[in-house]
Amino acid sequence: MRGPELAETIANFVSTNRVDNVRSAVDLNATPTRKIVSKIEADIKNTDKLAEELQKLSDRMEEIDRLDSYIRQKLSEVEPGSEDEQKFFEEKMKLTQEKDALVRKQDYFNVIGTLNETTEKIAIVQQKLAHFAMNDDYKTEEEKQMIDSLMRELKELVDQKNNLTVELMAKEEEEEEHDERSRLTLERTQNFLRGQQEPLSASKRLMNWIRS
């Protein structure tokens, strides 16, 4: 295969198999809102802040764990059915929901990190293939095998990038749904904890609600 033929083969392959950005991936799956797409694109571009964001998430989760331990201790000390017990339970629910959201966010940023690494690997493979394409002579058998290997690697990386892009969109859509469910759950919990069943402590009312 001559250089120009190889270059054309590579160009055709990339143009028919890749997803250059989040917007082009939308055509492959259920269309998310423009707001979600724009947010993902912005997060992907802010690669310099990725490590910083992950560290912030980790620090906050550690802080939540400490607060949760403190609240558990306080709940064992307060009078059952008291306003203090109710307040501590409400705070505990908020912390639990916040930590769940942080875990999902951490997973989201980890996918972005993997996506960026995959994009870099694609660029490296394309550079190697471009080197072969610059040579207009027929390739040796060893070079042909290397080209075939690089083409297979490129296809795997492009497929991985496409899948990661779609996964990011799904995660962001799910996050919006989680936010709404968390809000409703917190409201329902607060209503039950503030119930008028005075003989029952807040903890027992909560357990009865969960079992119902």
Q: Mean pLDDT score, rounded? A: 78
One letter per element, helices H and strands E, the order comes to HHHHHHH
Shape: elongated
Total strands: 0
Individual helix count: 7
The biggest beta sheet is recorded as: none
Helix content: over 70%
Can you tell me the residue ranges where pLDDT is under 50 for at least 5 consecutive residues?
25-30, 196-200
The Cα radius of gyration reads 26 Å
Strand proportion: under 5%
How would you classify the helix and strand content by structural class?
Answer: mainly alpha
Multimeric state of these chains? Answer: single chain
* Count of the separate structural domains: 1
N- to C-terminal distance: 70 Å
General description of the model:
The chain is mainly alpha-helical and 212 residues long. It has one domain. The termini are far apart.
Short description, anyone?
By secondary structure, the chain is mainly alpha-helical. Helices cover about 80% and strands about 0% of the residues.
Short descriptors:
212 residues, mainly alpha, 7 helices, elongated, bMERB_dom, coiled coil, BMERB domain-containing protein
